[in-house]
């Protein structure tokens, strides 16, 4: 067993030098486990935690945890299990929030030739009586799937395990949900089994997270290096066949402020931070940032009592199959609509024509403003280019589509 200790003080000057600092940890040959613990006074301070071995990324928990364990066969959520290659590893400390007087810290890293025991997880039985799928008009060979493109689990700062999230999303009537934990891919290995066990499409993703903005890299991608500029995120996501989405661009202190040479293909226009659906701020941001961006929605679900639940809003995708790749193909092709909820009015674009479902009495609004009143529970509204939405008579947005 070897023990490494680091102690000191992080200051605002340290944060101005770099958002991330590295503390070396020696992993001797034959080590089976590494455990790291970070201690600091959290009053007015916030430190993030992560780890790199000599080959690269081994995990990230941000500010959600103050300790982690990595072994050959298991790891703390957010971290990747696997053989511990001997050499100098780097524990990453992110200086998220530093008070004027600085923050003192102590970090202890312990290696062992015996694996540390990880607590056993309780099995999550599938939902017996799940809501019936909502059937919407679709092109031949395709069907609309109700889902959510932004959620979190215990692999970052969420409260639910992957199976718990899968069951909860099914309970909410979702056909798919993207699991987008912060700055990690450790959850990806759990998605196929949890999705199959609960009968839901779990789309792999990672929320690349910095103080300058958050972006979802959607797809079964390698880890995206959040320390690089956003243009590098876009290049890496494209190279891996995935899709990059700018998240909650107007979301308070997590708003998007990072410059980019090119625009990502997706924009999370509808997020729980759209607190009043009478506001047009999300729409104006969309038009100012990149009108050609495909609008998507996400609840940003973390835990009960703090966020909108999955499906608030609901992102609808016209898909050829109930598979992650097919869902993302539908998104990439722009076969997307967003509604305030799963069971309310929906505005779809199908074969170039706008269709309003269960939207009697709403108003169709196009790029030039109100166009017509919607009559009936199934209304064909013609072929009109550009972003459209339906609103209630007072102007609250109920559904929108590119």
Structure characterization notes:
- It is built from 6 helices and 24 strands.
- It is mostly beta strands and 402 residues long.
- The chain folds into 2 domains: 111 residues, Jelly Rolls (Sandwich), CATH 2.60.120.380; 201 residues, Metal-dependent hydrolases (TIM Barrel, Alpha-Beta Barrel), CATH 3.20.20.
- The strands form 4 sheets. It has a 13-stranded mixed sheet, with helices on both faces. A 4-stranded antiparallel sheet has the order 1-8-3-6.
- A hairpin with a 2-residue loop joins strand 20 and strand 21.
- Helix 2 packs parallel to helix 3.
- The radius of gyration is 23 Å and the shape is globular.
């Amino acid at each position: 067993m070897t023990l490494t200790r680091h102690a000191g003080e992080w200051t605002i000057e340290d944060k101005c030098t770099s958002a991330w600092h590295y503390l070396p940890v020696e992993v001797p040959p034959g080590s089976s486990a590494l455990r790291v613990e970070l201690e600091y006074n959290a009053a007015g301070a916030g430190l993030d935690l992560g780890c790199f071995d000599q080959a690269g990324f081994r995990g990230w928990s941000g500010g959600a945890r103050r300790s982690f364990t990595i072994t050959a066969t298991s790891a703390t959520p957010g971290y990747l299990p696997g053989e511990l290659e001997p050499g100098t590893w780097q524990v990453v400390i992110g200086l998220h929030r530093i008070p004027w007087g600085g923050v003192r810290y102590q970090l202890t890293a312990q290696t062992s030739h015996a694996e540390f025991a990880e607590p056993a997880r309780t099995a999550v039985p599938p939902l017996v009586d799940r809501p019936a799928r909502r059937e919407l008009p679709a092109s031949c060979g395709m069907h609309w799937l109700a889902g959510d493109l932004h959620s979190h689990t215990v692999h970052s700062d969420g409260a639910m395990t992957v199976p718990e999230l899968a069951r909860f999303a099914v309970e909410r009537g979702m056909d798919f949900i993207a699991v987008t934990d912060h700055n990690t891919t450790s959850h990806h290995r759990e998605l196929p089994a949890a999705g199959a066990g609960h009968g839901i499409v779990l789309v792999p993703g990672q929320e690349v997270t910095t103080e300058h903005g958050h972006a979802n890299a959607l797809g079964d991608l390698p880890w995206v290096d959040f320390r690089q500029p956003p243009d590098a995120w876009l290049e890496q996501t494209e190279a891996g066949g995935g899709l990059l989405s700018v998240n909650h661009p107007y979301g308070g202190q997590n708003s998007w402020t990072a410059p980019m040479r090119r625009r990502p293909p997706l924009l999370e226009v509808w997020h729980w931070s759209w607190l009043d659906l009478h506001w047009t701020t999300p729409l104006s941001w969309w038009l100012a940032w990149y009108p050609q961006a495909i609008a998507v929605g996400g609840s940003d679900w973390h835990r009960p009592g703090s966020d909108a639940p999955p499906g608030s809003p609901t992102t609808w995708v016209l898909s050829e199959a109930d598979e992650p790749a097919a869902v993302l193909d539908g998104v990439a092709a722009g076969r997307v609509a967003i509604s305030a909820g799963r069971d309310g009015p929906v505005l779809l674009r199908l074969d170039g024509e706008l269709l309003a479902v269960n939207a009697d009495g709403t108003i169709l609004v196009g790029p030039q403003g109100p166009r017509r009143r919607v009559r009936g529970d199934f209304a064909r509204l013609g072929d009109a280019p550009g972003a459209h939405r339906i609103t209630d008579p007072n102007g609250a947005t109920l559904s929108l589509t590119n």
